[in-house]
Prior knowledge:
- By secondary structure, this protein is of the alpha/beta class.
- The chain has two domains: 6-54, SH3 type barrels (Roll); 100-282, Response regulator (Rossmann fold, 3-Layer(aba) Sandwich).
- It has eight helices and 13 strands.
- Helix 3 packs parallel to helix 4 (183-196).
Amino acid sequence: MKQGDYVVRRSYGGDVLFRIESFRQHSAILKGIDYRLLADAPFGDLDVVDNPEQTGASQEVKIKVNETMRRFQQQTARLEEQRSMHYGPRPGMPKGSGPYFEVPGKVLHLDGDGSYLRKSMQLYNHMRVPAQGLHAHESQMPALLQQLLPRLQPDIIVITGHDGLLKNRPEPNIQQLSSYKNSQNFVNAVQVARNYDRNRDSLIIIAGACQSHFEALLQAGANFASSPDRILIHALDPVYIAVKASQTPIRETISLNDAIYGTISGAAGVGGIETTGTYRVGMPRPKQAQAIAQGR
């Protein structure tokens, strides 16, 4: 057993696939491959996985991810069809010379995990969502937002990383923020962002990670947060919500059903409140873009 090996925990029935990050004297520090989870386990509880893609845990996640992407593609196709009907080329205009241009909502993504951030940025790029990402420890996020918000002026902020209920909690009550690894840091970051912009429609905040204090994050000013049932959430769940917010027209309210049930974790992992989308259409289309579209 060595650093970088894929493993599962016997005591949990191999429900989550991990990679070994480091070692302690009698245990290993583990990081979830698909879920935003940091854990430790004794060596005797671990089984090395030679073919991680073939595990039951990995296969189940893949099915859910594919279903989520299929729904996203269907929703995107419907929106493109609606835009084409309202703003598409008039009779006699050459193909590709439609008179409108698109302005999707801009995302600022702060992530406490560098590998999850890379996966998130790949998804933003794939979905054509303008996004800037920054890897930072959860405790640094409030101060970073104070610096970044006036300069970057995003439409949507994602505040995520690692979280979870502490094994040896000072308070047995899960309503206490002291019972969580990073929920207090996330709450502080949300409060900084909400003090910058009090309007939940002009600045959309998506906050939390695995098992985060859902109610505290909403009360602090988040539009969407994890985790209502204190479950593990998929690493990309906050990104799916951000993409939905970026691609929903500003004249429409983001569908809570589509946004929440479009995630891997569903309503047990993510919840939120009614929020207006950030996607805008502009006219006329810039001449340079028309020339590019026509191959000039």
